[in-house]
Amino acid sequence: MTPPFRAVLGEELGPRIVVISREQTRDYARQYRFESARFSDDERARRIGLPGIIVPGNMSLAYLVKLVTDWIGTRPATLVRLSTTYRQLVRPDSPLTLHGVITGAGGDGSVELDLWMENELGERLVTATATVRALPA
Prior knowledge:
The chain is an alpha+beta fold. The chain has helices at residues 22-31, 42-47, 57-72; strands at residues 12-19, 77-86, 95-105, 110-118, 124-134. It folds into two domains: 1-20 and 60-137, Hotdog Thioesterase (Thiol Ester Dehydrase, Chain A, Roll); 21-54, no CATH class. The protein is built from three helices and five strands; from the N terminus they run βαααββββ. The protein has a five-stranded antiparallel beta sheet with strand order 1-3-4-5-2, with helices on one face.
């Protein structure tokens, strides 16, 4: 039997530490046909003013989505909305910490979340808000 969907204001998701490697970054960019050198070639990325290759925004977003879907688990709920802000570059090969917190709950079984990815200095690189909704019984 699937447990009921319940959430508590202030409940935290994570923290979860991940390291996205250069090779993962290159593979992701290649798989999704992101042709820009900023995702695959350090020297060419530097020539366009970057500190080296960067992680694609969609890849960063996928890690935050996984944080939410892992939290949902087998409970009868689904992620229905996600809004993201990319605040700083995400660099491969450095520890990134994923966080989330429940900030609201609606009478319709929905839960509002704040999510973020931060670097080892505690700087928030990517922020997001999400809505998770309980599925009808």
